[in-house]
Amino acid sequence: MFSNLPEPTLDPILSLSVAYREDPRPEKVDLGIGVYKNSAGETPIMQAVALAQNKVVETQKTKSYVGLAGCEEFNQAMKTLVLGESNVLDRVSAIQTPGASGGLRMLGDLIKVAQPNSTVWISNPSYVNHKPVMEAAGLKVKYYRYFCSATKQVDAGAMLEDIAHAGKDDIVLLHGCCHNPTGADIDFEIWQQVTQLALKNGFTPFVDFAYQGFGDGLEQDAAGLRYMADHVEEMLITASCSKNFGLYRERTGVAMVLGQSQQDAMNAKGKLLTLARATYTMPPDHGAALVKTILQDNELTQIWRDELDSMQSRLVLLRAALCEEFRNQHSTNDFDFIQTHKGMFTVLGYTPQQIARLREEFAIYAVGDGRINIAGLTERDIPYVANAILKVS
Ligand code: LMR
Predict the structure, then answer these.
(1) CATH of domain 65-296
(2) Residue located nearest, by CA, to atom 5 of ligand 1
(3) Where are the domains of the chain?
(4) How far apart are CA 350 and CA 371, in angstroms?
């Protein structure tokens, strides 16, 4: 049976982490996978998470099953974190999922059951896992133009032109903030225009919200998504706690459905639960228990928000410092676009060959599509990285 299988292809992001770990060169820099590192190059447990963890360990009395939807208090808290105090909350149902990738898959499976002929439109480029997950759910995938490689900004005109072709059986997948991989976000007016298109042409928006808090702040990052949720009849959302709670390995995420009515949302949840039962049964509890503990406690929430804000500010400073290095030490403002991008990532616009040279000649690991993770930089790395980026250009 297994001899019929082709040689495995490696995941372009996860395989980099393995290669980085095995690289013996002391100067190596990991700008691959989307993980936040502090000035010491470490990814410590966030303070609020460590405090919540102590609390959970002290108070938890059982490791018995929680339930198919995971922790309902977590689901409720995540609805508010993502959607705010919106008056559509009673039309939104939510299930806890193993990370936002788990949420993507569950929602993909739900689309396949509810509207089997759907095409999912994704941005070009997009998070490398979007296409495989949607195709694994049996859905067709089409691209809409998104990024202008000359300006390194969103090409909003082209994006809207392509999205205008999405019809009532279609799904349009958007990045809530901190677009992965480009770092170029749509502004609020574009959220409004996509919302108008959804209302006019009948497609369903699907928002992947993996970086809330890393762009401009928790509330600001949610503004476009919240506007959309307040205006459309149906919408799908998946959100991650990997980055903003630093819970990467705990696989903590949520999938939400906004229905035309509360009943529709509950029916969708029921279907999601049977899909989850047939896939992984129920999500792991620990990460959600920590997030719930933080979000139900004002003091812990404040500690968490403060730390997240300082991570966000540091990303802005790192971007500025990298641009300054190019300007002051190499007399070029060709990289000023880095400062206009949001969140962890920026696309350099380099070819796979140039990215391979960064890795081979300088031990700098970036994703093959030219994405670098600014959150993987330390202040100390900046001169070395800027010099290498120029050397391979
Ligand atoms: C990334 O894009 O680096 C992260 O979202 C990690 C992942 O799951 O691929």
Answers:
(1) 3.40.640.10
(2) 34
(3) 10-44+300-391, 65-296
(4) 8
Q: What is the pTM of this model?
A: 0.96
- Give me the count of residues in the chain: 393
211 lines ligand 1 (CB under 6 A): no
Q: Tell whether ligand 1 has an atom less than 6 A from the beta carbon of residue 31.
A: no
Ligand 1 neighbour 365 (Cβ under 6 A):
no
* Nearest alpha-carbon partner for 133 in 99, 108, 168: 108
* Per-position pLDDT tens, the chain of length 393: 999 999 998 888 999 999 999 999 999 999 999 999 999 999 999 999 999 999 999 999 999 999 999 999 999 999 999 999 999 999 999 999 999 999 999 999 999 999 999 999 999 999 999 999 999 999 999 999 999 999 999 999 999 999 999 999 999 999 999 999 999 999 999 999 999 999 999 999 999 999 999 999 999 999 999 999 999 999 999 999 999 999 999 999 999 999 999 999 999 999 999 999 999 999 999 999 999 999 999 999 999 999 999 999 999 999 999 999 999 999 999 999 999 999 999 999 999 999 999 999 999 999 988 899 999 999 999 999 999 999 999
Please state the atom number of ligand 1 nearest to the C-alpha of residue 101: 8
Q: Which of 33, 97, 126 has the most ligand 1 atoms within 8 A of CB, as the residue to mutate?
A: 33
User: How many CA within 13 A on the CB side of residue 369?
Assistant: 20
Residue with CA closest to ligand 1 atom 2: 34
Residue nearest to atom 1 of ligand 1 (CA): 34
- Look up the CATH number of domain 10-44+300-391: 3.90.1150.10
Distance, in Å, from the CA atom of 153 to the CA atom of 212, rounded to the nearest integer, reads: 20
Q: CB burial class (10 A; 0-12, 13-18, 19+) of residue 34?
A: buried
